[in-house]
Structure formats: C-alpha cells, structure tokens
Amino acid sequence: MSVPAAAGGVLYEAHRKVYAREVSGVFARLRIMATVALLGIFYGLPWLRWNGRQAVLFDLPARKFFLFGLTLFPQDFYLLTWLLIIAALSLFFFTALAGRLWCGYACPQTVWTEVFVWMERLAEGSRSRQMKLDKASWSKEKAARKTAKQAMWIGFALLTGVTFVGYFSPIEGLSVRIASGGLRFWETFWILFYGFATYGNAGYLREQVCKYMCPYARFQSAMFDRHTLIISYDGARGEPRGARGRGTVARQAALGDCVDCTLCVQACPTGIDIRKGLQYECIACAACIDACDSVMDKVGYPRGLVRYSTQAEIDGAPKRTLRPRVFVYGALLAVLLSGFAYAVTHRMPFDIDVLRDRNTLYRELDDGRIENVFTVRIINKDQKAHEFRLTAENLPNATVDGDSPTISVAAEDVRTAVVRVRIPPGEQHGGRTFTMTARPLDRPLLVAASRARFFSEP
C-alpha cells in the first residue's frame, strides 16, 4: 500500500529555523536571572569544598554520594525515591498554579538554549542580520562569523561535559588529567557524549526538543483547568487586528488594539502565534508578553493585550488562581518536604547487614556448643570513626566471637568481618530468628540491627 505524497512529492514540511527576536522587559530579566543563577550553580558546585572534600560528588565506584555534610549509601536509596516523588508533585503544583513555569525558566533545555542563542547573536548579530547572513553566499565575513559561533558553541559544550563528569569524578583531579592528557576512557566518553548532547540540543534542535521529544508538552493539558495561569491573548480586546497610524483611536477605526506587528511571533522561541490560543508548543517563557507590552507602550495603548491570565478570566469569569487543587498539592508538598527533612536529619548514622555462611549450616564444637558463621558488614555513615561491639539478641546465652572483641570502622566507610555466633549445649532448637546488633562504644544509645536465623539440631 503506497502512502500518498504531498504537493511537491514530500510527506512533511522541511524544518525551518526559528530566529527568535531579542526582547527586553520584566520577564526577559527574570529569564536572564534564572539562567545565570542555575548555570552558576551547575558550574560552581563541583568546585565547592566541604570538610576537605568536594561538596557534591557522586562516587559510583565507591557507591557513595556526598552532598555537603551528608554521605549517602545504597541503603539510603529510599531518600532518592522520596526526592523524585517531591519533584513530581512540585511539577503538578506549579503547573496547576501557573502553567509551564518549569519549561520557561528552569528546564535545562531552556537554560542552555538561552546561552547558545546569546552566543549566536554575539557572533552573527541580531535576528534580521542572522537571516540575511544565512541567505547570503559564502564569503570571508560569513565564514568568520560562523566559525566564531561554532568555536563558542563547542567550547561551551565541552565545558558543560567536563562539569557534568566532575560530579562523578573529583573535578580537581579531572582537570589535572585533562591538562596532562591522561583522561580515562569513560571520562573522555562522557565528556564528549554530554558535550555533544548539549551542542546538538541547544545549538540545533532547540524548539524541536520541546515540541517533539519532551513528554511534558504532551500531557501538560491534563494538569490544566480553566483557572490555571497561562499566557493568553485577549481576543476581545485585540480583534479585529490591523495596522493603523500613530495616535489612531482603535475603536473609532473599527479596530482592536492588536496592530498586527507580529513581534509576539518573532520573539517566540518555538515559533508559534499566541494569538491563535494556547498551544502545546508554548513553553511559557513570556517573551511574547514583553514584545507586546513594548508595542503597546509605543502606540499609547494599555499593556496586557498578551498577559498571564486564565481561560476563565478571558471568558469574563472571575480569576481563581488559588483553588482547592492548588491547596491540596501545596499541602501534600509541604508534608513530603517536612518528612524528607526529618528523615535526613534523624537518619541513623550506622547500618548493619548480616549474611550467613552458606557452606556450613551449623557446626558442633568439641565442648558441645553449636556455632553458626556469619559475614557482617557495618556501614559507618558518620564523619568520624567508631568502634562497634556486636551482640546477638533474642538468642538466649549466645556469644558473638570475631577476630577481635570490637570492630573498628573508619569515617564514611564500610567494614566487613566474619563472626561466629555460639550457643551453649542444651540450647538447640532447630532454627530461630535473632537480631544482630552493632553498638558504637562512644554512642551506646544508638544501635544498628539486622535480623538473621540461627540453625542447630532440633
């Protein structure tokens, strides 16, 4: 079965580059502030020191995550799950409150695209000059400008890749290896991979990531209602649109306030016309609001033809930004944040895992005692070393023998030891569950425990 081709023999319209017009205004300044703050955090955090080490480091080979004064082990995975739930609920909360705030101001795709667009303007000029340059035949000036842009893009993308790897490999040592040409294979791979992803997504794909690759664009409408703050064009005020002379009274000329300058379309980074209504491609960056407000100022009309509003308000109903679903999301978010803070601040600084020896179920010693052998792993999450004493609880008259009376575990380290649990003659009971406990000698009120099973004759 053949697929009918469109006019000209092609199925799809070729992609056309969006040349976003530079605008100034309140929302443009907010985007710049957000971009500077977020990039400052991303590029600065790996260089921050905390107690003599990198403040934020995900040490995968050692299976340790360092977050300032907090050291997380695989046993703390539930905290990561908790954070993901908080992030998802935050998305619901802010989307219900004010639409795609995340997309317009904090999404990595938006943030890095802002920087790449800025470098493009620095090398090639304004929107009109970029369009003219791309249509022009190759010349020395065009080659120089394109080369300068590519050099900035590639340099910034590689810096991004190095910084990304610096969260997983100590960045100071990474920088030394880069300077000496001694990078490891996986470091080189991920620097190039993440750098190339940044270069491609922010340099070329741009709005296509938001329109075709991001799943949020597809299901955002499920979180909207008529009272969600969105960027809206006031059709009742703006229509019928049309050009007019300066000083023209719109209603006397049978026109709306929209002068049909299309600056809102030119400023849009995804290339949509907000006057056609809310579209899934809109990332709520509010560039169209700044563009329209500047035009309204010039023609002497009130601002707000394009503004943050709600569908209900546009239709003439009262605005209800704060409504039950917002309070419910907010309350749940507050509970989860409070619970997470409590879980982190009251986290047990020690943990113990017990694994029995699979080679021998039990052993009877010469004096009649029954012995089970276990491998015990003690995890010290504290920032100081501790001595631990092991005991077997819920196992009457049992003794715990190891290579030494106590087990010493360095700060933020894991120690594995083989211990023998013994019960006296006459205490045989087939199999019994007991609790292996580890108590630090200097903090005896704290105890880490793990359940195990002791086997003997029936």
Largest sheet: 5 strands, antiparallel
Query: Helicity level, as a percent range?
Result: 40-55%
Query: What form results from the Cα inertia axes?
Result: elongated
Distance from N terminus to C terminus (CA atoms, Å) equals 75 Å
**Beta-strand percentage range:** 15-25%
Q: How many helices does DSSP assign?
A: 15
Count every beta strand, where a strand is a DSSP E run of 2 or more residues: 16
What is Rg?
32 Å
Mean model confidence by pLDDT: 91
What would you call the structural class?
alpha+beta
How would you portray this structure in words?
Helix 4 crosses helix 8. This protein has 458 residues and is of the alpha+beta class. The chain has two domains: 334 residues, no CATH class; 106 residues, Immunoglobulins (Immunoglobulin-like), CATH 2.60.40. Strand 3 and strand 4 form a beta hairpin. The chain has 15 helices and 16 strands. It is elongated, with a radius of gyration of 32 Å. The strands form five sheets. Strands 8, 9, 10, 12 and 14 form a five-stranded antiparallel beta sheet that branches. The chain has a four-stranded antiparallel beta sheet with strand order 13-11-15-16, with no helix packed on it. A three-stranded antiparallel beta sheet has the order 3-4-5, with no helix packed on it.
Question: Which characteristics define this entry?
Answer:
single chain, 458 residues, alpha+beta, Immunoglobulin-like, 2 domains, five-stranded antiparallel sheet, four-stranded antiparallel sheet, 41% helix, 19% strand
